[in-house]
Write a structure and sequence with these properties.
The complex is a heterotrimer of chains A (about 100), B (about 120) and C (about 140). With about 120 residues, chain B is α/β, with parallel strands linked by helices. Chain B has a single domain, classed as Hypothetical Protein Ychn, Chain: A, CATH 3.40.1260. Helix content of chain B is about 35%, strand content about 20%. Chain B starts with a strand and ends with a strand. Classes of the chains: A alpha/beta (about 100), B alpha/beta (about 120), C alpha/beta (about 140).
Chain lengths: ~100, ~120, ~140
């Protein structure tokens, strides 16, 4: 499954909830304000690093760039564009948006 | 692949409408078919022909209309959610149509993938 | 053919396919419209003979709490609608144990019979679905 999270981990618990339900073989895509979770030094970094051991984690490049965070991505998080977003949706049988 | 899109938030207030649009455009560029874009909750406001956003920023309603025109995409506004929020046939932008929630369920059935954009 | 008749015919044709639909409820009632409008989709889905289940986790468990009294708020109390789901053959209601525990809610405080599952089981259920819709 492709898990999509769109809110900052400081605003909502959606990233935490998502990670509690993401099984091996899934993928996590961070979009919109959730891309902050993919940046070095943020409080969610440990959670994201732990997640990386179980599943691939992606962050939407245009959202990182808009927020001035393109240079701060945690090692291992793959940056994708909207085309990459589409590819992830096509690759996984279902997607779940954690709103 | 046939991809369905659900948009649950209105233009400008949330990024959902933008992300959904960019996603839909990228899907088309990759050769996928966007089976339907369904607008629910405040998402129905994406269909208002009365919006006049500042000229120096993206025109969210117009670009949905343009996408529908260029690619024949079915833009559906939920009738019940529309009535709640004052989005009716008279103030619908070009390219949008009003229909029932069944069209959302049908999109789930007919599409290979359904992606939800919201708050 | 009228537009409505055309749509109904097209909708009937798609009923041959049965997909597993899961509606995910993670938000409390009344503070936002998502619980109510989410429920409206669930009711419509009943007409399509799909394999429908509902998941309640995080604040979504509050949607099922007994004793909702909305008179002073002057908003419609839509919680009785959860009891009507059974009549629509929608009986798979999964509630997450951890979410109940974190909120100090017991199963006997819920409006309707549900299946309480833990997060791992919920994750497995989610993985089985064809379509997941949350609001």
């Amino acid at each position: 499954m492709l898990h999509i999270v769109n809110k900052s981990p400081y605003e909502k618990s959606s990233l935490t909830s998502c990670l509690a339900h993401a099984l091996k073989g899934s993928a996590l895509l961070l979009i919109e304000d959730a891309v902050y979770a993919a940046t070095k030094g943020n409080a969610a970094e440990d959670a994201v690093r732990r997640a990386l051991q179980e599943l691939p984690v992606y962050a939407l490049g245009p959202d990182l760039e808009a927020r001035g965070m393109a240079g701060a991505v945690i090692d291992g998080v793959k940056v994708v564009d909207y085309g990459g977003f589409v590819d992830l949706v096509a690759e996984h049988r279902t997607s779940q948006s954690w709103l | 692949m046939k991809i369905g899109v659900l948009v649950n938030e209105g233009p400008y207030n949330h990024q959902a409408a933008d992300t959904a649009y960019q996603f839909a455009r990228a899907a088309l560029a990759k050769g996928h078919q966007v089976q339907r874009v369904f607008f629910y909750n405040d998402g129905v406001n994406n269909a208002s022909k009365l919006t006049e956003p500042p000229q120096d920023d993206r025109q969210i309603v117009n670009r949905w209309s343009k996408l529908a025109e260029e690619h024949g995409i079915d833009l559906v506004v939920c009738v019940a959610a529309g009535l709640r929020r004052g989005l009716v046939k008279d103030n619908l932008a070009p390219g949008f149509r009003i229909s029932g929630l069944g069209q959302l369920v049908e999109a789930g059935i007919e599409s290979d993938r359904l992606v939800v954009f919201g708050d | 053919m009228t537009q409505i008749a055309e749509e109904t015919e097209s909708e009937a044709a798609t009923e041959a396919v049965v997909k597993k639909f899961m509606f995910v409820n993670r938000k409390a009632p009344y503070g936002t419209i998502y619980a109510l409008e989410g429920l409206e989709v669930v009711l419509i889905s009943a007409a399509f003979n799909q394999d429908v289940s509902l998941a309640f986790l995080d604040d979504g468990v509050y949607e099922l709490l007994k004793g909702q009294q909305t008179k002073a708020l002057e908003v419609k109390n839509f919680s009785p609608t959860y009891r009507a789901l059974e009549g629509y053959d929608i009986e798979k209601l999964y509630v997450e144990r951890e979410s109940l525990a974190a909120r100090g809610i017991r199963e006997d405080q819920l409006l309707v019979p549900v299946q309480v599952v833990d997060a791992k089981e919920m994750a497995a259920l989610m993985e089985q679905q064809d379509v997941i819709i949350g609001f």
